[in-house]
Amino acid sequence: MLRASSYTHTDCGIAQTAFGECVPYVAGKDPSLSHQCCSAVRDIKELTPTAKDRRAICACLVQELKDAGGSVDSSKAKGLAGGCGVSTNVIPTSLSFDCSK
Predict the structure, then answer these.
(1) What gap in Å lies between CA 29 and CA 10, rounded to an integer?
(2) At CA 41, angle to CA 35 and CA 46, rounded to 5?
């Protein structure tokens, strides 16, 4: 499981810190998935056992993408969880991703 730094006191903060490992890939700046990113995707899935959790964490991840410059390669984002062998629908595929679903 992800080790959070002292400033990540919430599940949102933990998810954003973890997802930071995936931002270069999702933004199209890194051509391949890293082991660290896949580990982060697994950690994020563990943080989202309920639909309410998934909606909240998804919104946090959208904000993380916006804060990181707002660039999203939607095809990479769509394939992220599957590429890591994780079944989850919490990873946003665009900055306008509907986290309510």
Answers:
(1) 28
(2) 130
| Chain centroid, CA 56 distance in Å | 12
Q: Could you write out the DSSP letters of every residue in 30-99?
A: SSS--HHHHHHHHHHHHT--SHHHHHHHHHHHHHHHHHTTS---HHHHHHHHHHTT---S-S-SSTT--T
Token pair listed for 18:
């973890």
d(CA 61, CA 54): 10
Tokens of 71: 């660039």
Q: What's the whole-model pTM score? A: 0.85
Cβ contact 39:21 at 8 Å: yes
Spatial separation of the C-alpha atoms in residues 18 and 86, rounded to whole Å = 15
For residue 12, pLDDT over 90 is answered with: yes
CB 46 within 8 A of CB 87: no
